[in-house]
TrEMBL record:
This is Aspartate--tRNA(Asp/Asn) ligase. ATP binds at residues 219-221, 228, 481, 533-536. It comes from the Bacteria. Belongs to the class-II aminoacyl-tRNA synthetase family. Type 1 subfamily. The gene is aspS. InterPro entries: Aa-tRNA-synt_II (IPR004364), aa-tRNA-synth_II (IPR006195), aa-tRNA-synth_II/BPL/LPL (IPR045864), Asp-tRNA-ligase_1 (IPR004524), Asp-tRNA-ligase_1_N (IPR047089), Asp/Asn-tRNA-synth_IIb (IPR002312), AspRS_core (IPR047090), GAD-like_sf (IPR004115). Keywords: Aminoacyl-tRNA synthetase, ATP-binding, Cytoplasm, Ligase, Nucleotide-binding, Protein biosynthesis. It is found in: Cytoplasm. Residues 197-200 are annotated as: Aspartate. Residues 140-554 form the Aminoacyl-transfer RNA synthetases class-II family profile domain. It catalyses: tRNA(Asx) + L-aspartate + ATP = L-aspartyl-tRNA(Asx) + AMP + diphosphate. GO terms for molecular function: aspartate-tRNA ligase activity.
Amino acid sequence: MRSHYCGQLNETLVDQTVTVCGWVHRRRDHGGVIFLDMRDRDGIAQFVVDPDTADAFATADRARSEYVLRITGRVRLRPEGTQNPNMPTGMIEILAKDVEVLNTAATPPFQLDEHGKVGEEVRLKHRYIDLRRPDMIEKLRLRSRISHSVRAFLENEGFLDIETPVLTRATPEGARDYLVPSRTHAGEFFALPQSPQLFKQLLMVAGFDRYYQIAKCFRDEDLRADRQPEFTQIDIEASFVEESDIMGIAESMIQKLFKEVLDVELPDFPRMTWQEAMDRFGSDKPDLRIPLELTDIDDLMKQVDFKVFSGPANAEDGRVAALKVRGGASLSRKEIDEYTKFVGIYGAKGLAWIKVNERAKGLEGLQSPIVKFMENVVEELLDRVGAEDGDIIFFGADKTQIVNEAIGALRVKLGADLELYTQAWAPLWVVDFPMFETDGSGRLSPLHHPFTAPSCSPEELKADPAKALSRAYDMVLNGTELGGGSIRIHDQTMQRSVFEILGIGEEDAQEKFGFLLDALQYGAPPHGGLAFGLDRLVMLMAGAKTIREVIAFPKTQSAACLMTDAPGEVSAEQLKELNIRLRQKAKADTAGE
């Protein structure tokens, strides 16, 4: 129906006749001459309809915003003074000969060029309108290019694209499963996969050696800006590999991707242990663009007459850390109060601080309500953090986890608020994660998943599981975890040792993971892999604020689709077929229940 897309029209086509299909982006009537800005997925072009072509003019006269048109006309240069060099099609216009209305359109719920004034709920309700915006088209085009680049790289590296089941067995992997009732097996349920983890390990046992998949995954968990109930993973697994092999493949893939798609040369990724990341940045996904670091001062605070500091400094699970901000003494008291409220979100009871106005004056050159409690260690403190005139020092003192989370988050917020970024892209690998973490009841649980291999023998693991490290690795970019993986457990003895430490007995393990344990008996090779969050990767590369901006049809924060009104109720007949009976909602009585 057309010869060109709108965005393809340029000076090389002058005096040629073209046919274009698209939507009316804007209609303008200038003294009897009608200008139609036509839009399709490739761009916008200007069409001119004058009264000399009576039929075309009459059709254009009744065209309105978002009408679907087919226009044939001659390409010509725009008159001097009306050209727009900032627009790909801005040097030409098309003199229309024929204008055909392919479909009319109701008045859209919002103008595409005024979407910023519209709430996200309205845009998600009418997502098919929102997706017409050039900005959204470009983001999804970018997503397509990223997927293509990833596939081409992995295929060239010998990886096979293999699909794994979407209806599978519920297995404990950290988050709640989405369950699907079975009609043919009354009272039993499938689960949607949180990841293809077990199946890709089985593919390694089967001898496929190198597998990849751009896979849909599902987790029923609380949502946030970079989390959706259904999301997409770039899933990778390989046999006869060590950590450096998988990390090398993944790093090369991301470097090639950034070069091809953004023309950005990412450097080789530095490596940092999990412990170093937590000590220096309070986070296992540190944003290295921000030149701020936490400094341990436990030893200095153990004897001070300030229990807020001395208490955590002397506690086994406590930490006192300082965060120096160059030039931060200019922060107002109101701003400091706002930062105090901010760290409270992470459990901090307050935010102590010292402003270094004139260090040469000693205590008189410092401004803070806490200096009087630590006079004997102030100079050593200032030396340790490298404080200079004009700096401010913030303090965190509490349980280690609270300090890390609160001051680590404060570091990131200060970096954004004060525009402290020193570079555009800062990648790294975080390695040597703990094998286990302790939950609120003191029980050990896997930091990643129970199939991650420890970096020690089964005997050493059982002797002191709390101190065991895993063979896991995370790729981090600008403070966002792009992907993570590990070398897997490939022998039964180690797998059963891990299950034993986690309190999973043999019968329970066989019930939940029997098919994997059975497979490990039959010559499982050493193997490992990694999974990238495709949505997060596209979000970063597109400069978007949330992954909802780079997913065609996302869910809201409450895991609902406003466009289709999902989830929704189903008929009694459907429930009966599935052998499901819903509990009736109790009605409040007059007693005020």
